[in-house]
From TrEMBL:
It comes from the Bacteria. It comes from Hoeflea halophila. Cell division protein that is involved in the assembly of the Z ring. May serve as a membrane anchor for the Z ring. GO terms for biological process: FtsZ-dependent cytokinesis. This is Cell division protein FtsA. The keyword Oxidoreductase does not apply. GO terms for cellular component: cell division site; cytoplasmic side of plasma membrane. Signal peptide: none annotated. Self-interacts. Interacts with FtsZ. InterPro entries: ATPase_NBD, Cell_div_FtsA, FtsA/MreB, SHS2_FtsA. The gene is ftsA. It is a peripheral membrane protein. Belongs to the FtsA/MreB family. Keywords: Cell cycle, Cell division, Cell membrane, Membrane.
Amino acid sequence: MSLFRPSSMLPRLKPLSSKRVSIVTVLDIGSSKVVCMIGRLTPVEASEVLSGRTHSIEILGIGHQKSRGIKAGVISDMDAVENSVRLAVDSAERMAGVTVESLIVNVTAGRLGSETHTASVNLGGHEIAAGDLAMVVNAATRQSQLNERAILHSLPSSYTLDGERGIRDPAGMYGDLLGVDMHVLTADRAPLKNLELSINRAHLTVEAMVATPYASGLAALVSDEAEMGCAAIDMGGGTTTISVFSEGKLVYADAIALGGHHVTMDLARGLSTRLDDAERIKVVHGSALPQAGEDRDVISIPPFGEDERDLPTHVPRGLVSRIVRARVEETLEMLRDRIQQSGYGSLVGKRVVLTGGASQMTGLAESARRILARNVRIGRPLGVSGLPASAKGPTFSTAVGLMIYPQVAHLESHGTGEGGFAAMTGAGGRLTRMGQWLKESF
């Protein structure tokens, strides 16, 4: 299966059909788990769903496996990733009763980078047409210095017309000078190719790649939060991602290579125990906040070896919490600094939503409120039916966000010049086929 397509192909997803039901398959490849979801997207009246949604989503099948071969979002063992993908997809296929050939996948690796570019074009006083919008968007997108990077998302955040800012849709208006502020999210090219290759090896085709922070934000934020300005922090096993939304659009995204697995590793080292035992201790006894009597309570630590003569050791529960808190506070302080350095701290305001598997740690929300100095809530996937009870928590936000993504993909404008996603990864052929695939499905 060739990874290369002509770079002239338009690398953007077409809107979902407003009349036909579509079957969509998504794949969330994380450092701790691989999740495959198969869903039915049914067109509905706008008043019947969440703001910005055009379809209702019913999950038909779900499969998840322990992730292997992924470290901090980067593929370290192609065979292991391929096997995890096969098992997760096979489980979802059996549950849904369908065969999967193509899917949407998330991207965490590749040093995600957010850029904002501004461009303008002279209109000569005539009515703004689609060609004028495409021209100014292309001018802004071309400013991205890609080199060995690929464009994942390219979103017009706002337009200006004759100096008037804050215009959402200038089509049909009259003016002399049309400008646009463009948010372009890029990633290193090589990790994207490796990700696509590992999925191709499982005899599956990648239809679209979506940045993990974008997907988790789509799933965890309510429409008012995305409109007024809010940050979504997705705390996974190997990475933690940040996305900032304002006026309903993604305006900034970032990722750091710290997650829940790092807490587990700290406990395994500090308590001299196995990783599986350290994970259990973290879940049962770990806390991101000091607790009353934690130094009086004693917990049993299983021995590292297999020798039956090795006896478990006993340590104060407070030692476990102190190890956990040290790593959690380091992560939260790094997130606070990233938000401040991004220049979007004022847009975030006082609203932060935590999601992802590691966000469920005891006391984490309270610790985040103190360190981030903002109101914090735990976000769970919204607006999806058919999820089993075990999949309704923050752990599955990214997968649900990938299922939501086709409804907002038409907002993106990658431009038609050299340097778009197709030119950088060769994946444009599959991206351009997604609209056709969605219309023909089911």
